[in-house]
Predict the 3D structure of the following.
Amino acid sequence: MKKYLLYPGCSMESSGRAYRDSINAIVEPLDLHFEEIDDWNCCGATEYLGINLIPAYSLIARNLALAAKQTHPVNGTEGTRTVVAPCSACYLNLAKADYYMQERPSLGVKVNEALAAGDLQYTAGTLDVRHLIDILVYDVGLEKIRSAVVRPLHGLKVAPYMGCMLPRPDYQHRWSDHEHPTELDDLLRALGADVIDYPLTTSCCGGHMTQIGPETAFELIRRLVADADERDAQLMATVCPMCQMNVDAYQNEMNRFFGTDYHMPILFFTQLMGLAFGREPKELGIGVELVNSRNALAHIGVEVPVTQEPTAPRKKVEGLPMPRRWTKHEGRKEAVK
Amino acid sequence: MTEKVGVYVCHCGSNIAGTVDVEDVAHWAAEKLGHQGVIIAREYKFMCSSLGQELIEKDIKELGLTRVVVAACSPHLHEKTFRIAAKNAGLNPYLVELASIREQVSWVHSDKVVATAKAKAVVSGAVSRAIQNAPLEELKVPINSNTLVVGGGIAGIQSALEIANAGFHVYLVEREPSIGGHMAQFDKTFPTLDCSACILTPRMVEAGTHPNITLLTWSEVTNVAGYVGNFHVTIKKKARFINEELCTGCGICQEKCPKKVIDDVYEAGLGYRKAVYTPFAQAVPNFPVMDKDNCTYFEKGTCKACEKFCPTGAIDFNQQDELLHIDVGNIVLATGYDLFDARRVSNYGYGRLPNVFTSLEFERLSNAAGPTNGNIVLRDGKTAPKSVGIIHCVGSRDRNFNNYCSVICCMQGLKFAHLVHERTGATVYNFYIDMRTAYKAYDEFYQRVLEEGTLFVRGKVAEVTDAARYSNEKGKLIIQTEDTLAGKQRRIPVDMVILSSGLQPRHDAKEVGKLFGISCSMDGWFTEKHPKLDPVATMTEGIYIVGCAQGPKDIPSSVAQGAAASARVLDKILQKEVALEPIKATVNKEMCSGCRICNGLCPFNAIGFLADDNVSEINPALCQGCGTCVAACPAGAISGTGFSNEQIIAQIDGLLMRNLEPA
């Protein structure tokens, strides 16, 4: 059994719950052991580094410092210095902090001054920060994954979507390519899926632009979904909770914005692994996605139980109704049609 | 106090005198270093001028100087000048010492006081060192008049022909079955649009039939020993499985051979050849080669179709590799280049998107003797493109890949644009960073292509993709680029993309460099002796580099270099003997422990091992005096003439001003 330190990241607790569930479902058949880092905190996601570097790096480095305390063998378990982050943003932040604390020693000193307030310390380079798919493809190996498959995904046309944060910047030279990495393609193929050539595999999903400039995010999401649809993909597979949320949760809104009617479910690659390993959809968190994958998974004979569609809480109407908000894109909707 | 030292400080116009108080340095040297033996110290406007040299010669004769220190430029520039002056006056040239107060002092400092102080220290070091110098004698060795040319591309062919025409023998070694190199693959050559084969093949035939040229194709150099004038070279002549005496080059074996193979070399992967083949119709020599790895007989033990049909019985399945040993005086390396592997720029989609081609693929596509008979079509083999995008600088001028400019790509892109336009009438876009059309008649060609209506977009292409965003992009390749002149992003849908891939050093350039004892630059090209004034010689005497082996260049420059190297070789041959610099390393056998650390480190393969005495020995004719072994020897058993421990320590003492007259 191979042991790794796990940094789950915030989204695993909420929007990416299905990712967590499906990871839990595949560790056993693959003989993996993930030990969660005690008392971990948010990595700061994508925004904080743009505001104030030292606190942002300190926030990240606190997790590295905590993880470093857990590298030694305890109670007969083996030691490890590899931290696994299943979220691309978490992975990038942890890897970035580790890299820049080495490259710019003055940054390392300042961050450690901050950490000292909590009796923590981190020497850059102590840990190996890796993404979950990196572990699965290069440590576990496609051979082992293939041998664990009991329900091959034959006939399921999947668009492999790696997202933009995973392969770039590649501090430790971990990926096959920066612009068109093939790790996810290979893994899905090992599950028996019919993997399409997806040119947008590293294109941006919009990230937090959905909050700041939704129109921009919608266009980025539209490109991803439209191209997968154009290539007859039945669903998209992702490695990142942010990508999953944007494509899934904003797909309806994007459709409304452009006047389109795409239906492109997006699942975590671990959910597809779980299915291939014979697990039931429910324990993999399948069915909670907003763009449901029921029809897509019917192609491989998987029946997804119908879940109660969440109903939005009714807003209490107060006063008189406002006129509808005007957006400058209103005229464009017609044009796109 | 036995030595009489003269110190000569040069102004170099204002180059030195502008930053260093040269008069002060000269006065100081005479005063403070007098007890060391400095009997005269002068300054002069231009020491290297004939008047300056005469000044030194006069002092040597009249004052009986036994050591001369010239404080001027770097020894690279004028050491030879002053050594000759000393020799003329009867002083051993190796008793002259140069103190570099220009490159290492005046050019790199601005504060006159500090610079003057540093110049004094440098002069002081040179004086102390000069006193320790010993007179040395140059070694004279005879020169073998044969020459080895490695690589049968246009540069190698040119070089071989020039030497052979002068009446000396040349061995021309080529790794592929035929000479001709990359030029043989091209259709047209810029800027005149001459047919490449038409101008190349007469040269190939001349090289193949010249009485003074021994052509060794399908051969590789495996070992090089010896030194300038006396190289001993081992060449592996790979088995062709064809008896060259009997073969008439009729081509029946190729016709009958049932095995078709993708030709990765000559056809750039775009066409097929047989398992027994001559790469192209005009190949020199015209004997085919059997590709052992793909031949059905070698794979399965049956077939022999070629043997059955050969009218002269020239097929010989039992042929073995042969080792030839030859002696030559000079070696010209014309090993050429590899094309940059465009798959590395994955955002351009080469290898994934069928209609993205490399420049070499396009050369074959447009070549009348190529796989499509010169029809410019898409990968499906039939559809003519209606729009074509040519992307420049693929893998060149790019920090992710190669920093350097590959020189030929701009003109090559223009040539492609012209050919596409002429043959298909398609709309052609050129995507360039900067348009570089230097040299004769090149810019005129650019103007011509502009007038033909080719469109130019200035900007680095971000991506070539088949992910359509808009309806007019469906089924096309979309080139996403910044247009830096219009200041905006553009998406241009096209049918075909040609990547003007850069040139790269040969994949085995490092090993080849080591084999011949020459070095490679950071980028991997062979390093010339001087980038401007000695571009074809190398730091190893008797070894010359020409064509793209030295750096990216076009055909005219390659030919010019080939000829230039030949002039250098002929110069050496006609001198009949060569003087070798006496700066050599020697092993003190008493101290050598036989650890052999130095053996592998020597970049010139000059150190041998005497197993009987368990000591290493340095061949003085091979040694170039680089000092690597001296520094590496753990026992301190190796010492370099001209760089002995005594000299170095004396120089350090001098630099630290430990040699001054006590106040």
Remarks:
- Residues 10 and 25 of chain A are 19 Å apart (CA to CA).
- The longest strand of chain A covers residues 2-6.
- The mean pLDDT of chain A is 90.
- Chain A touches chain B through twelve residues (CB under 8 Å).
